[in-house]
Design the sequence.
């Protein structure tokens, strides 16, 4: 087991059971700052359940989650969000009655500005900082032209980008993305890729669940392959993708023994 990094996100010995089934079964994972880590594996491998444990949507039955070196295992999702962890979901979740700009602004207001600054004894970030974070997120995802549209007018791809913009507006230090390219066209996927690389270059720690092999090969620094609740392989992208147990198809990992 590697030493716990002082920043980014770390999981040690995570277990999450549903009845008699361990959906996550003793997972160790490091999501370091400045890197893109991809989490892959066949349907039912436990990827979303692991995301739930990391983001605080679910409480693990055993193990620990560290955010920037701090044990957050018992903190709920909103408290982790204020400490710098943002997450998107497989099912797109935006507020349809609000505009694109208002949805994005919610991310800026729920993000780490408030509590982290508060803990440091600094004043709350205030409207200008939130506006700046909102504007930047909208610009990066090409949504400025539709910022006054009601979110329910957006097609699926743009809705996905809006969810990403809202997560980004929180100025996270750790960003968990559950199938961020689902529903995106080629141009939107390319935009997503360049935004994620830019965030990594700024020092954000990124973890993404992604089924698109080419996107993972192009973007990820490290790939973690899960099967049946366990980590089957974890290492540099090229090495993992060349491993015969993965063989170019995530689904085949299901049949391989660790
Ligand atoms: N709320 C739940 N109640 C009972 N079993 C669950 C629940 N959520 C997940 N599971 C089970 O846990 C296991 C892991 O599911 P999970 O959704 O985490 O896998 P996944 O890798 O994200 O799959 P997919 O790629 O299809 O999203 C599966 O066997 C699933 O049926």
Sequence:
């Amino acid at each position: 087991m590697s030493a716990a990094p002082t920043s980014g996100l770390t999981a040690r010995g995570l277990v999450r059971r549903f009845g008699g089934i361990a959906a996550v079964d003793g997972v160790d994972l490091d999501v370091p700052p400045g890197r893109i880590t991809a989490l892959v594996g066949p349907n039912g491998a436990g990827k979303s359940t692991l995301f739930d444990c990391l983001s605080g949507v679910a409480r693990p039955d055993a193990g620990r989650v560290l955010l920037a070196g701090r044990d957050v295992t018992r903190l709920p999702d909103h408290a982790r969000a204020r400490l710098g962890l943002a997450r998107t979901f497989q099912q797109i979740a935006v507020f349809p009655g609000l505009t694109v700009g208002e949805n994005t602004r919610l991310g800026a207001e729920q993000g780490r500005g408030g509590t982290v600054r508060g803990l440091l004894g600094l004043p709350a970030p205030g409207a200008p900082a939130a506006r700046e974070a909102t504007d930047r997120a909208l610009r990066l995802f090409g949504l400025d032209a539709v910022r006054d549209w009601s979110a329910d007018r957006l097609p699926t791809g743009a809705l996905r980008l809006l969810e990403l913009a809202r997560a980004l507006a929180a100025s996270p230090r750790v960003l968990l993305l559950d199938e961020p390219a689902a529903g995106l066209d080629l141009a939107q996927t390319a935009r997503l890729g360049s935004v994620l690389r830019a965030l990594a270059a700024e020092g954000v720690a990124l973890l993404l669940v992604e089924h698109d092999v080419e996107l993972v090969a192009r973007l990820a620094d490290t790939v973690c392959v899960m099967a049946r609740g366990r980590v089957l392989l974890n290492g540099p992208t090229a090495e993992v993708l060349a491993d015969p147990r993965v063989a170019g198809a995530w689904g085949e990992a299901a049949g391989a023994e660790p």
